[in-house]
Write a structure and sequence with these properties.
alpha+beta; 2 helices
């Protein structure tokens, strides 16, 4: 009986881990998509590379650079959850004061 319970627990734990990983991937995709959307609408960069640097509940920091290096790298800070994310501030030198003004936790500062 203990063997069956152990196997069932292991199966549930594995399933929960896989589900959690899938949600994290969906969230990462949503963050990258929101950043790309912002870049294409608000800048002239045509070949952005977006790298997620840090995610905390409700917020994310991403690094953005041009594949062709035609612009300086920038940092974008996003607010959201699940599949709904939006850029709240964006720039080459975003300060802790800038983050505070838009409600981004200081723990996301570099």
């Amino acid at each position: 009986m203990n063997s069956i319970v152990s196997r069932a627990f292991a199966l549930v734990a594995s399933s929960a881990f896989l589900f959690s990983a899938a949600l994290a991937d969906e969230q990462s995709d949503a963050i990258k998509t929101a950043a790309m959307h912002y870049i294409f609408q608000e800048t002239s960069v045509k070949d952005p590379i977006v790298t997620i640097e840090k995610i905390i509940p409700g917020f994310a920091r991403v690094g953005i650079r041009s594949k062709s290096n035609i612009t300086d790298p920038v940092t974008a800070f996003l607010r959201g959850s699940g599949e709904n994310w939006s850029v709240v501030t964006f720039g080459t030198e975003v300060t802790a004061s800038d983050l505070s003004e838009v409600g981004v936790p200081s723990s996301l500062a570099k």
